[in-house]
Amino acid sequence: MEFFRTLPATLDTTGLQQRLDVPALPGLCDAIDTLVQDEGPDNGVVYCLWGEFRVHRELINGGVRFSLPGCPNGLAWTLTTGHPPEPRAVILHLTINRQEHDPDFIESLEMFADSWELSAA
After folding, report:
1. How far is CA 111 from the centre of its chain?
2. Is the per-residue pLDDT at 48 higher than 80?
3. Kind of pairing, strands 51-60 and 43-48?
C-alpha cells in the first residue's frame, strides 16, 4: 500500500537533507513521540504510534528516505522535492509491503502521513 501527501514547505533538496535526520523526527512528525536512542543523523530508535522501532535514514535523489527495518509491514517513507508534478513542494510517499491491511492500521498510516509539519523546518 502507498500513501502520498503534498506538504507545505519551501525547502530545497539540500535543506531537506540537512534538516531531516533521525534526531529531528519527533519535532517534525506528531506521530513520532520520542527519540529513544540517538545514533547520529542516519540511525536511531524512536517511539511512535506503533511502538518502539529502529529507524534508518538515507539520502536519495531529491531528499531523504526513512525506513523501519524491524517493522513487520516494511514501513518506509520518503520526503522529496524538485520533482514533477510539484517541483516546489515536498512530497511525502509512505509505503508498506502489503496490498491490503485491516482498517484500523490503514487509519493509523493515514494519521502518520497527516502528522508531518515541515513549514517550521
Report:
1. 12
2. yes
3. antiparallel
- At 79, list the grid cell: 520526503
Please list, residue by residue across 49-70, b when 16 or more beta carbons sit within 10 angstroms of its beta carbon and e when fewer do. Answer: ebeebbbbbeeeebbbbbbbee
Q: For 61-111, what is each residue's pLDDT tens digit?
A: 999 999 999 999 999 999 999 888 788 889 999 999 988 778 899 999 999
Mean pLDDT of the 36-55 span: 97
pLDDT of residue 17: 96
Amino acid in position 79? L
Report the C-alpha gap between 44 and 57 in whole angstroms.
Answer: 9
Residue of 93, 86, 79, 89 whose CA lies nearest to 24: 79
Give the 3-state secondary structure of the chain: CEEEEEECCCCCHHHHHHHCCHHHHHHHECCEEEEEEECCCCEEEEEECCEEEEEEEEEECCEEEEECCCCCCCCEEEEEECCCCCCCCEEEEEECCCCCCCHHHHHHHHHHHHCECCCCC
